[in-house]
Amino acid sequence: MKKAIVFVSVLAVLFSVSVFAAKPSATLPVITGAMTVDGSLADWKACGIKPILINTKDQVAIGVPYWLGAEKQSAEVYVAFSGTTLYMAAKVTSPKGLKNNKTDGNIYDGNGIELFIGFDNSDPGREMYTETDYQFGFSTGDYSKANKKYAVKPSVFCFNLAKTVAGAKIVTKPVEGGYIIEASIPAAFLAGWDAKDGGEIGFDIGVDDIGEKGLGRKIQMTWSGDKDGYKNPKGWGKAVLKATSCK
User: pLDDT tens digits for the chain (247 residues)?
Assistant: First the structure.
């Protein structure tokens, strides 16, 4: 009986290690200079920054039956830090494009991007947010192509702090088959800011999409494939920060 218990315990440990090892890992740039938040990906590409791809069924964390395939629901997401700013940009394939009529803490329930950042990743298995963990939401806003106006403007919200991000900038643009979204968050907003060359952070990305019908979120794709990142950092991946020269 003792041997059986030991064997089961060993299996449990091996399983937990294998799950941890399966977490995705990325390298994110810490840039010199700054990105221009204008809804263009040109400066990202000029700097040689590669996007993180979210385009597989395994990354559909919520709403698998509503996923229409990568050709209709997927994203290329860029993330970078400077000495003073967190930058995010994405080219998103989405049936409804710039369609999010929600505000503040409800913007997850429309089209947009979520970004999960944990500056102290010394305990990657932590099961609750610490003071250096953040969940940001970037809403596309609700844009009418016919009127060329926003009924609801794009916005940036920090869910775990339950407040709008002061000093944030955001621009969204419709493109064929979806949209481009670009935003910045000042380091001054983040009490736990620690973005330096060689640093390791907890990291994940979410893509919220309302699908072809309706106004509420039908699916969420995440880089890690985990659906509980909004409350539990344990499922996030990680990123190593690397100094990159961008002028």
Answer: 444 444 444 444 344 443 445 789 999 999 998 999 999 999 999 999 999 999 999 999 999 999 999 999 999 999 999 999 999 999 999 999 999 999 999 999 999 999 999 999 999 999 999 999 999 999 999 999 888 999 999 999 999 999 999 999 999 999 999 999 999 999 999 999 999 999 999 999 999 999 998 789 999 999 999 999 999 999 999 999 999 998 6
Within the chain, residue ranges assigned H as helices are 2-21, 42-46
Domain at 98, CATH number? 2.60.40.1190
CA 206, CA 49: separation in Å to the nearest integer?
Answer: 19
In a domain, 18, yes or no: no
- DSSP annotation string for 162-178: TEE-TT-EEEEEEETTE
Quick check: 239 and 24 in contact, CB under 8 A? no
Residue 12 lies in a domain: no
Which candidate, 112, 125, 133, places its Cα nearest to that of 206? 112
164 touches 157 (CB < 8 A): yes
Residue 96 DSSP class: S
Continuous segment of H or E residues that includes residue 139: strand 133-139
List the beta bridge partners of residue 237: 203
| Residue 20 counted as domain residue | no
Domain for residue 69, yes or no? Answer: yes
pTM value is 0.91
CA dist 64 → 9, 69, 205, 219 (Å)? 33, 10, 17, 7
Provide the number of structural domains found in the chain: 1
- Domain ranges, residue 225: 27-244
